[in-house]
Design goal:
The complex is a heterodimer of chains A (259) and B (572). Chain A is of the alpha+beta class and 259 residues long. Chain A is 46% helix and 27% strand. In chain A, strands 1, 2, 3, 10, 11 and 12 form a six-stranded mixed β-sheet that branches. A three-stranded antiparallel β-sheet of chain A has the order 4-7-8, with helices on one face. In chain A, strands 5-6-9 form a three-stranded antiparallel β-sheet. In chain A, β7 and β8 form a beta hairpin. The longest helix of chain A is centred in the first third of the chain and has 41 residues. The radius of gyration of chain A is 28 Å and the shape is flat. The N and C termini of chain A lie far apart (99 Å). In chain B, the strands form 15 sheets. In chain B, strands 2-1-3 form a three-stranded antiparallel β-sheet, with no helix packed on it. Chain B has a three-stranded antiparallel β-sheet with strand order 5-4-6, with no helix packed on it. In chain B, strands 8-7-9 form a three-stranded antiparallel β-sheet, sandwiched between helices. In chain B, α6 packs antiparallel against α7. Chain B is α+β, with helices and mostly antiparallel strands and 572 residues long. The two termini of chain B are 72 Å apart. The radius of gyration of chain B is 38 Å and the shape is elongated. Classes of the chains: A alpha+beta (259), B alpha+beta (572). Chains A and B meet through β3, α3, α4, α5 and β10 of A and β2, β4, β5, β22 and β29 of B.
Chain lengths: 259, 572
């Protein structure tokens, strides 16, 4: 009896532990899956307006930056070379042989900033409208005034500032005058290298890409010469893998036909 | 007298008319026109026809070259915000994007665009003054610009004179310490010049961890606050002095000075010039190897070499291209020479492991008529192909002079490209331009090796001869025409007097019957060699050794016995 009792105890304990473990894991998975719903039901899902705008716009900025970076800095490049199904904008171009190219976009950094701003404009408006609706639905008095939008390429980051004025009233009043979305990105550094390559192209044609890689160990530059004399440059950051590519056609000395 | 003036006036006016009718039109912006090479949307392009210009919304055109216009002539677009001085026309230098246009083609003539040494924070570089100002503003740091210093080493040596030290601030959590330049550590922060944050009482302690620092090449000891201390040296792990005072990275008494210290477990004094830089391997910061191994050969960081020796391009096959390979950060990167037409080839100095692309100057080889000009290495890359010749439009052989020191000798030879160029041989009438300005088509280039060989052969069992274009043969034919008896003998005697052709064996008799003339093997071989030396011409396998779609019998057009042609069935 004693012996049997001892035996039952051991097996029973193991079974109980296994059941408890399964229940804990099950509850964990359930909790993980239902967390967003629980969160909103409990009301803790309400982010601050600043955090909401960051999360709503960040992906749009990322998408715009990626698209623009692949197309030589423009959402819709006017003069471009099609390579791997991508329309890569010419930043320096001549249609002639043996002539140096004409820089098409001498204010490249500002042009890119302006292109990003234009590309995200609709989404920015929509995000602020959603923010307004969300607070109105929760009983806030909301006053939203549209303001100046600004995108800045800076070292290691892109800052998008929206000078929208938002006033929330529910008992007390909260006022926000500006919203900033910060994206960690190396486009500033890549564009600086691109500008230097363009200056070289406009004087001497094909750039000496190894020099850039030697002096900037984090930067990789790949040159893809095409058969009509176009050079496609891909400037990338070795760690973040972010890239900026553009086309140039300068001092073309030889073509194999089909210009 | 008056008549003369009128005539001169008429000629001048006519000349101006002619010039204006062929000279360029400057488009401020182009539009797409089918059948032209001009791309739409490009600013400031010289085009042949005004129909290529976009004339909408006030865009300008002028019947002159862009350089002669005020809106498209080259100047400099200066942008203070981005710090750029970009050569560009006024038309693209948009003021709404911050551009200000100067009518100066040499950027250095603009004071803000001059080059010099730019020191920002702990880093230095050679840049324009305007870029230095803009970058300092972007990094929110002070800058120092020294015009005229164009040597990076001299520039970086100025950094050492800037004194760094521990910058300490009291916070609720305790003393917080970072390494800063004195000028960046202002009151209420305390600055301790020349000291590390691990110096006594400055708030941080030493650890056994190592780290890389932004913009630096060495591996550093890390302190408990996450600051880099001095360069990692395992023998100094517990050395209090080494953990108290800042030691400059350029100090000559650091461990492993003069070595790259690649993968060293004891010393973090990396040397970028010798091929090492701080990097993480297996979670540990060490001097990472930047060398590359390619086909069993080790190359240092920054070294370049050719994908294959330039000599291999003397017998280049279609698709064979020349690349410069470079070793950068442990990675081998190929860069194509030229744009894929072998108009540039890789040249290498194997002693210093340096390679670069040089022009393949083949364009004007074929028109050289003497060995001195043909082999002038300062002007072109050609060679003399002896035993064969180029013919003119009338199929007449072109003379070739061989210079042997002072003596001249007329020989049978042609000047051909030393490195046969590539072109769109599959599109034989497309434009092909060479590195020296010649413009041609694949048909045109390959066609220079073509010739006509008039061969005699018998027909109808030797009763008639055809073709008769060859002068002497025609004469023989007329002589013997109408002969009923002894016609064969007449022809035999007559043709025996005709000069021997270089391209075919004369006919003869065998068993009392006339036999066919046939192509001379030596001649045919020489023509084949001439043909393939012109470029991607003739019968060749491609660079993957895949056969072409024409054999020699397809290229030797006419009536002849195919078995007489060397390699008649070869497709490569």
């Amino acid at each position: 009896m004693r012996r049997g009792c001892k035996r039952w105890n051991k097996n029973g304990q193991v079974t109980v532990f296994i059941i408890i473990a399964i229940v804990i894991v099950g509850l964990g998975i359930l909790g993980y899956m239902l967390y967003p719903k629980i969160k909103s039901t409990l009301g803790i899902g309400a982010q601050s307006p600043t955090a909401y705008i960051q999360s709503c716009i960040e992906d749009n900025i990322k998408g715009a930056v990626e698209k623009i970076s692949l197309q030589g800095g423009s959402v819709k490049p006017e003069v471009y070379y099609t390579f791997d199904d991508e329309n890569i904008g010419y930043l320096c171009y001549t249609n002639e042989m043996y002539k140096s190219c004409v820089v098409q976009q001498p204010n490249l950094k500002q042009h890119i900033e302006s292109e990003i701003k234009t590309d995200i404009e609709d989404e920015v408006g929509a995000c602020f409208e959603l923010l307004k609706d969300s607070y109105e639905n929760r009983g806030y008095g909301v006053q939203l005034t549209e303001g100046i939008k600004r995108v800045e390429l800076l070292p290691n980051r892109i800052i998008s500032t929206f000078n929208y004025s938002l006033t929330l009233t529910k008992g007390s009043t909260e006022k926000y005058d500006s919203f900033a979305v910060i994206l960690n990105n190396n486009l500033y550094e890549l564009v600086s290298i691109a500008n230097s390559i363009l200056e070289w192209e406009s004087y001497y044609g094909k750039a000496e890409i190894n020099t850039y890689m030697y002096y900037y160990p984090n930067i990789k530059v790949v040159l893809n010469p095409r058969d009509d004399g176009t050079n496609i440059y891909v400037v990338s950051h070795r760690n973040s893998k972010e890239l900026f590519q553009f086309a140039s056609r300068s001092l073309v000395s030889s073509v194999g036909g089909g210009l | 007298m008056n008549k003369k003036i009128v005539l001169i006036f008429v000629f001048v006016a006519f000349g101006i008319f002619l010039l204006s009718s062929v000279s360029a039109v400057c488009c401020e912006k182009t539009i797409a026109v089918s059948g032209t090479a001009t791309r739409a949307g490009a600013f400031c392009q010289d085009v042949i026809d005004i129909s290529s210009c976009d004339r909408s919304s006030g865009l300008r055109t002028a019947p002159t070259s862009c350089q002669s216009t005020d809106y498209c002539s080259r100047g400099t677009c200066v942008n203070s915000e981005s710090g750029t001085c970009m050569p560009s026309p006024k038309a693209t230098c948009q003021s709404e994007l911050g551009g200000y246009w100067y009518n100066k083609t040499k950027t250095e003539q603009i004071p803000r665009c001059e080059m010099g040494c730019c020191i920002i924070g702990n880093g230095g570089s050679i840049s324009r003054k305007i870029k230095c100002e803009a970058a300092a503003s972007d990094y929110n740091a002070d800058y120092e610009f020294s015009p005229g210093i164009l040597d990076l080493e001299v520039c970086l040596s100025k950094l050492d004179s800037k004194k760094k030290g521990a910058c300490v601030v009291e916070t609720e959590q305790g003393r917080k310490c970072t390494i800063e330049l004195g000028e960046n550590c202002q009151s209420p922060k305390e600055f301790h010049a020349g000291l590390l944050c691990t110096a006594p009482d400055l708030g941080c302690v030493r650890t056994s961890k190592t780290m890389c620092a932004e913009g630096k090449e060495d591996v550093y000891f890390a302190d408990s606050c996450g600051n880099p201390a001095n360069v990692y040296d395992s023998s100094k792990a517990t050395d209090t002095t080494y953990w108290t005072y800042i030691k400059e990275d350029s100090s000559s008494d650091l461990c492993g000075t003069g070595d790259s210290n690649i993968n060293s477990q004891t010393c973090g004094n990396c040397n970028y010039g010798l091929g090492s830089i701080c990097g993480k391997t297996g979670g540990k910061s060490i001097c990472k190897d930047l060398r590359c191994t390619y086909k069993g050969v080790t190359y240092n960081h920054g070294q370049t070499w050719c994908s294959e020796p330039i000599k291999n391009f003397e017998t280049a096959t279609p698709g064979k291209l020349s690349y410069v390979l470079s070793c950068m950060n442990g990675e081998v990167t190929p860069t194509l020479c030229g744009n894929g037409w072998r108009e540039e080839l890789c040249w290498e100095n194997s002693t210093v492991k340096y390679a670069t692309c040089i022009a393949n100057r083949w364009d004007f080889c074929i028109i050289q008529n003497n060995s001195k000009d043909c082999l002038n290495k300062d002007m072109r890359d050609c060679r003399v192909e002896e035993g064969t010749e180029i013919v003119d439009a009338n199929n007449k052989e072109k003379l070739f002079i061989k210079w042997d020191g002072e003596t001249k000798q007329e020989i049978k030879a042609a000047c051909v490209p030393k490195y046969p160029p590539a072109f769109n041989f599959w599109n034989p009438d497309s434009t092909t331009a060479g590195s020296q300005g010649a413009s041609n088509t694949p048909n045109g280039v390959c066609g220079r090796a073509s010739t006509i060989c008039t061969a005699l052969y018998s027909q109808n069992f030797g009763l008639a001869w055809t073709p008769y274009e060859y002068e002497c043969a025609s004469a023989c034919k007329s002589t013997c025409e109408g002969w009923i008896i002894g016609k064969g003998l007449c022809e035999e005697n007559c043709f025996a007097k005709c000069p021997k052709s270089e391209c075919y064996e004369n006919y003869g008799t065998a068993g009392g019957k006339l036999i066919d003339g046939k192509i001379k093997k030596e001649w045919a071989t020489q023509r084949q060699e001439l043909c393939i030396s012109m470029g991607d011409c003739g019968v060749k396998a491609n660079y993957l050794d895949k056969e072409g779609y024409s054999s020699w019998k397809d290229l030797f057009i006419g009536n002849y016995t195919k078995s007489d042609l060397p390699n008649a069935d070869a497709y490569k």
